[in-house]
Design a protein that fits this description.
Elements (H helix, E strand, L loop, with lengths): L5 E3 L1 E4 L2 E11 L16 H29 L2 H14 L2 H12 L4 H17 L4 H22 L5 E3 L12 E6 L2 H6 L7 E6 L5 H8 L4 E3 L13 E5 L4 E3 L4 H12 L14 E6 L2 H9 L5 E5 L1 H7 L5 H14 L5 E4 L26 H7 L1 H14 L5 E5 L5 H17 L9 E5 L2 H5 L1 H5 L4 E4 L1 H8 L18 H17 L3 E3 L9 H7 L4 E4 L4 H8 L4
Parallel strand pairs: 3-5, 5-6, 6-7, 10-11, 10-17, 11-12, 12-13, 13-14, 14-15, 15-16, 16-17
Antiparallel strand pairs: 1-9, 2-7, 3-4, 3-8, 8-9
Helix pairs in contact: 1-2, 1-5, 2-10, 3-4, 4-5, 7-10, 9-11, 11-13, 12-14, 13-14
């Protein structure tokens, strides 16, 4: 049976999922009332009506923020607190009041002022600020709703008992912050929308919770109905309206494989740790009795918050991670931005090839204040449990030494004794692998980031389907390099782990052990699989 329709858009969050559609459409106010106040005496009461609506909207946002913090996390709650800051901004309030003083009704004044701000943002070159224009449109609709006492909700098209996205793929013209407040993200299977961007709130949360999402799908809403089965492929940015049964069955089998497996201990002489980006994943790793967290991707905390986090905010989140897996070591990778991890609020100049640009260790050295803040927060948090710090995208010995000196200075400022927090280097750039002996002389441990190492070793874009056959974890050149890294670590007497995806591929865990790499860090859902493989003899 041929595929009847495939829509191609922009992948916002990787992964594939098959589930029924939940079709949402915002019931917004398309016709805004416009009239002139009858007399000067009506201006005061109209301003008071506006201010009461702002107060009511503010309480709604506080409630939404509290609910989001409870369901997902504190960082996500900032979406609604940021909206509250906008409506309480003196410039916005004064502009609306001035419109009303010209005897305009409050609804029209709100519409005019926020529309003007929105149009201004849309004209800016900065992508991040252009995305914020959509927030202003959402605020405008909701504030007008409070003025008219008919708050916007989300209408499910065609079902009497709407599931509101539970275990379904939410389809909409756009996933707005208002919609986020009405959805339990922890139970959503996927997202597909006609409009949205990489830095939109929905995209950020989808990525942080590993929910497949695709946007830029023109005409999607008119082509689907509630309950229709859909396939969302966030890896390729595609949505299949009538997917082939074989493709559906393969993905459904993969989804079933993500369920928590039985808990096993790591075989003697090995350790199986977890990779994580979220506190939720750390808690799952603890349930699976992981030997620790071999890689915690700290950049996802910033992605979820959609802004730069203060030292105090980072400290709070690091302590949550440490407490989620008590007594086990947590390896925090320092902020790794660039490439496929866009953090537009850092205002990094657009690069022709971001994978070869200002990222990893280069970014950290170029932003000493950000590096210092992160290290100080980790130093303080280390009092609650065993912590390691890992430097991403190390290029060579000299670069690692620069970061090491900066890290040790900041750790000393927090009262940490020298050497109290192990400092490691990630081996994911070929030049660093060639200088492994020199780097191991400076570092406390090493970790192989196989995803990027394969990409840079073979000059192959891992996100480009045309060259996927060359992205080969079984290539003999790669295994020769891994063997040399293992020998260098053993000679230096330093631990070496692997935290890339290849450690979870069938058959590779045992091969890694055979070349002396006995510490493997994988997604929590693969812990049992890897332990079983390692336990099947030598």
């Amino acid at each position: 049976m041929a595929e009847s329709k495939i829509l191609t858009g922009l992948g916002l969050s990787p992964g594939q999922v098959v589930a029924p559609v939940c079709l949402f459409s915002p019931a917004v106010h398309r016709n805004v009332p416009e009239y002139t106040l009858e007399s000067e005496a009506d201006i005061g009461p109209e301003i008071e009506r506006f201010e009461k609506a702002v107060e009511s909207f503010g309480r709604t946002l506080d409630t939404a923020a509290a609910g989001m913090e409870e369901k997902i996390g504190r960082a996500e709650a900032q979406i609604f607190l940021a909206q509250k800051q906008i409506i309480l901004d003196p410039t916005v309030l004064d502009s609306v009041r001035k419109n009303i003083q010209q005897r305009k009704n409050a609804e029209h004044a709100v519409f005019t002022v926020l529309r003007d701000f929105e149009e201004h943002f849309l004209k800016l070159e900065d992508q991040y600020l252009r995305e914020r224009a959509r927030d202003l449109a959402d605020i405008r609709h909701r504030l007008i709703g409070h003025l008219r006492d008919s708050h916007p909700d989300f209408a499910c098209a065609g079902q009497a008992h709407c599931q509101r996205g539970r275990h379904r793929i939410i389809v909409a013209e756009e996933i707005t912050p208002s919609m986020i407040a009405a959805i339990d993200f922890t139970k959503v299977a996927g997202f597909a929308s006609e409009h949205g961007g990489r830095s939109s709130h929905a995209a950020i949360i989808a990525r942080s919770l590993a929910i497949p999402a695709v946007t830029g799908l023109r005409g999607l809403v008119q082509q689907v109905s509630c309950g229709q089965r859909l396939l969302v492929d966030g890896d390729e940015g595609k949505v299949y309206l009538e997917p082939e049964p074989d493709r559906v069955n393969a993905i459904l089998a993969a989804q079933a494989g993500r369920r928590p497996a039985e808990v096993l201990d790591s075989p003697p002489g090995t350790e199986v740790m977890a990779n994580a980006s979220l506190a939720e994943e750390v808690r799952l790793a603890a349930q699976m009795q992981a030997d620790g967290i071999g890689l915690f991707r700290t950049e996802f905390m910033f992605i979820r918050a959609n802004r730069l986090l203060s030292e105090a905010e980072q400290y709070t989140q690091y302590t949550e991670i440490i407490r989620s897996i008590p007594g086990r070591p947590v390896t925090f990778r320092l902020l790794d931005v660039g490439g496929d991890k866009e953090l537009p609020f850092f205002r990094i100049a657009q690069e022709a090839n971001p994978y070869l640009g200002w990222r990893g260790a280069r970014f950290l050295l170029g932003n000493p204040d950000i590096l210092a803040s992160q290290v100080r927060a980790l130093g303080r948090a280390s009092r609650l449990g065993p912590v390691k710090i890992m430097v991403p995208m190390v290029m060579d010995r000299d670069q690692f030494l620069q970061i090491k000196n900066a890290v040790e200075k900041e750790l000393a400022a927090t009262g940490c004794a020298p050497g109290a927090i192990p400092l490691g280097a990630m081996f994911e750039v070929p030049s660093a692998c060639l200088q492994a002996a020199e780097i191991f002389s400076l570092t406390d441990f090493g970790s192989i980031g196989s995803n990027d190492l394969i990409q840079y070793l073979f000059a192959v874009d891992r996100n480009n389907e045309r060259v996927q056959k060359d992205y080969n974890p079984d290539h003999p050149v790669l295994w020769e390099l891994l063997g040399r890294l293992s020998q260098a670590a053993q000679k230096a007497g330093k631990p070496l782990s692997i935290c890339g995806e290849m450690a979870s591929l069938p058959g590779l865990a045992r091969r890694l052990r055979e070349i002396g790499i006995t510490s493997l860090s994988v997604s929590p859902r693969f812990i049992t699989q890897v332990r079983k493989e390692l336990g099947r003899g030598k």
